[in-house]
Structures are given as structure tokens and as C-alpha cells.
Amino acid sequence: DDKGRRYDRPHRPWTLEEFAALEDLWQKHIACLSKTQIKQILQTIESTRERWFARAGEGKSATDKTFRQFVKDTLANAAWPKNHRWKDDISALTTAAARGELADLDELHFSILKEDLPEQPCNDEGEPRHD
Q1: 131 band by pLDDT with thresholds 50, 70 and 90
Q2: I want to staple 37 with a disulfide (CB 3.0 to 4.6 A). Which of 33, 66, 107, 129 is the partner?
Q3: Alpha helix (H) ranges present in the chain?
Q4: How far is the CA of 56 from the CAs of 3, 17, 60, in angstroms?
């Protein structure tokens, strides 16, 4: 908006428990995608949120069934590693993306902490590399 705030996204901070759960989703799933893929997914979700909910008020997108389905479909279309079990946490991933929390984690990891992902972020079993 004209004050520099993001449309329809709740404000941080999170509790330690919320942050731990979100960081677990990031490390377990999102970190298995390429940085380009992460940026594309989150840009698609966030630009759609802005177009659909610019005037709706804070938090409306997180509970909108159509938007949540759009988010779920966007996540499903990602280039997940072949054996990665992202569907095990699809509900949590959808909720975090619909609330804008994955976009916040993207900002934290890539803009603030300046982290980079390895060329091949997951091993052959579809699990994140920790080397």
C-alpha cells in the first residue's frame, strides 16, 4: 500500500514454536527446491494475493477457499525431487504459503541471512542435504 506495507499479510513476529514449525517446513521441503523455483512459486502466490485481496483487509487470503486451492495447486506444480515426500505436509505448506509465512522465510533466508542453496539441494531419496 502507500505506507509500504504488504497487502493482506499478517505482521511478524512469530512465537518460538511457530517459528520452529515454519523453519522445519522450510528445511524439510522448500529447501529441496532450487532458489529460482522458490522465487517463482512465492512470486506467483504473492502477486495473486495482492491482485485478489488488495482491499479485503488483513488475513482474508489465509482463509479464502479459492485462494488456498490456488496455493495448493501452485505448490503441486513445483519441480519437487522425484522421491521427495512433500505431500505428507501439503496442508501445513498450503497454510504457511496462504498466510505469507513462506514468503517471510524466503526474505529471512535469502535477503537477510544471504543464504544460498546447493546446486542439488536434496539427495536421491528426496531428503534435504545438510552438507
Answers
A1: low
A2: 33
A3: 16-28, 35-53, 60-63, 65-76, 90-98, 101-106
A4: 16, 29, 6
| End-to-end Cα spacing for the chain | 41
Helices (H) and strands (E) in the chain, counts: 6, 0
C-alpha cell read off for 89: 505436509
Question: Helix, strand, or coil here: 58?
Answer: coil
- Report d(CA 58, CA 38) in Å as an integer: 24
9 Cβ neighbours under 8 A, 6+ residues apart: 49, 58, 99, 100, 103, 104
Q: Is the pLDDT of residue 118 over 60?
A: no
> Is 75's pLDDT higher than 80?
yes
**Residue 97 pLDDT grade (very low, low, confident, very high; cuts 50, 70, 90):** very high
Distance, CA of 119 to chain centre: 20
